Amino acid sequence: MNQLQQLKLTDGPYVMGIINVTPDSFSDHGLYATTDKALELAERLIQEGADILDIGGESTRPGSLGVSLEEELRRVIPVVEILSQKNIPISVDTSKPEVMQAAISAGASIINDVNALQAPGAIEIVAKSKAIICLMHMQGKPRSMQESPHYVDVVSEVKSFLQHRIDIAVSGGIPYHRLIIDPGFGFGKTLKHNLELLRNLDQFVQMNVPILAGLSRKSMLGAITGNDVDNRVHASVAAALFAVTKGAKILRVHDVKATKDAIMVHNALITRNNEGN
Ligand code: 9MG
Predict the structure, then answer these.
(1) What DSSP line would sit under the chain, residue for residue?
(2) Per-residue confidence (pLDDT) for residue 206, from 0 to 100
(3) 182 lines ligand 1 (CB under 6 A)
(4) Using CA atoms, how far apart are residues 277 and 161, in angstroms rounded to an integer?
(5) What pLDDT, on a 0 to 100 scale, did the predictor assign at position 22?
(6) 197 touches ligand 1 (CB under 6 Å)
(7) If you measure from the C-alpha of residue 214 to the centroid of ligand 1, how many angstroms do you get, rounded to a whole number?
(8) Residue 23 confidence (pLDDT)
(9) 93, 113, 179, 212: which to mutate for ligand 1, most atoms within 8 A of CB?
(10) Whose Cα sits closest to atom 7 in ligand 1?
(11) Does ligand 1 lie within 6 Å of residue 135's CB atom?
């Protein structure tokens, strides 16, 4: 049984710890821009109880520009090669088919694509592997996506986009059990859109594919609390837990320990198997 089979996506909620191997990373100020720093962070997130690690070499924060293929490979692949020797599933956050291929060859078992496999060749690469794929919704591109997001009905538009991408992935040879969906909080959405999506996350459960929620330290939480990016742990945990109550199975987070603790309390309340006397 491989690491990913151990992690039944129908169970959860699982905590996916974020490792940005990017100098311009919005929440760690580029501190982990080297392989050593990324590995150091990975060790800490594993100790804190991460179920999955998500490694990314290209920032997708609002306003960010892309990086070259060579640079993304240089940042990500050495980290994946080392971490895939450990007993934890490795996800790689990329939209480039060449990086997907190299990451899978280096041992990654999940591809996290904010572009939902829309790049030419991406579906074929994932289809011929055994990797799980996270299909995320984004309106626009990171560079300009927050300039003027517009929806008539954000929930139904995001749902129909994801359903369309599921159908294309399945007809391209990726079976249902290898799919994850994600509404893409903060990706071409105003605060109102994000809140509407989070309130209605349970509507995505009907699509019968596990849901990933990425809310950690996002600007929507800054807009609600007035806190800067370094002071959003509590807000992130509150949002993550709400997502769990609405059906999220995977939480993509920076603050693994805090999120795990919250999930343990939640699980004790719903399973009633921790009551002692
Ligand atoms: C890479 N990345 C940044 N935010 C994200 C989110 O909300 N979901 C997913 N799947 N990836 C994200």
Answers:
(1) --HHHHS-TTS--EEEEEEE--TT-TTTTTTT-SHHHHHHHHHHHHHTT-SEEEEESS--STTPPP--HHHHHHHHHHHHHHHTTSSS-EEEE---HHHHHHHHHTT--EEEETTTT-STTHHHHHHTS--EEEEE--SS-TTTTTSS---SSHHHHHHHHHHHHHHHHHHTT--GGGEEEE--TTSS--HHHHHHHHHTTHHHHTT-S-BEE--TT-HHHHHHH---GGG-HHHHHHHHHHHHHTT--EEEES-HHHHHHHHHHHHHHHH------
(2) 96
(3) yes
(4) 49
(5) 83
(6) no
(7) 5
(8) 76
(9) 93
(10) 214
(11) no
Residue among 182, 209, 251 to mutate when testing ligand 1 (max atoms within 8 A of CB): 182
State which of 114, 229, 232 you would mutate to test the pocket of ligand 1, scoring each by most atoms of that ligand within 8 A of its C-beta. Answer: 114
Give the model's pLDDT for residue 61.
87
Instruction: Determine the pLDDT at residue 140.
Output: 87
Atom of ligand 1 nearest to the CA of 93: 1
Q: What is the pLDDT of residue 2?
A: 43
So which residues are the catalytic ones?
A: 218, 252
Instruction: Yes or no: say if 204 and 181 are a contact pair by the CB < 8 Å rule.
Output: yes
Q: Distance of CA 160 to CAs 112, 165, 243, Å?
A: 19, 9, 20
The Å distance, Cα 113 to ligand 1 centre, comes to 8
| Cα atoms in the Cβ-side hemisphere of radius 13 Å centred on 121 | 7
Model confidence pLDDT, tens digit, residues 155-186: 999 999 999 999 999 999 999 999 999 999 99
Segments of the chain scoring below 70 in pLDDT: 1-7, 9-10, 24-33, 273-277
Asked if residues 92 and 103 have their Cβ atoms less than 8 Å apart, the reply is: yes
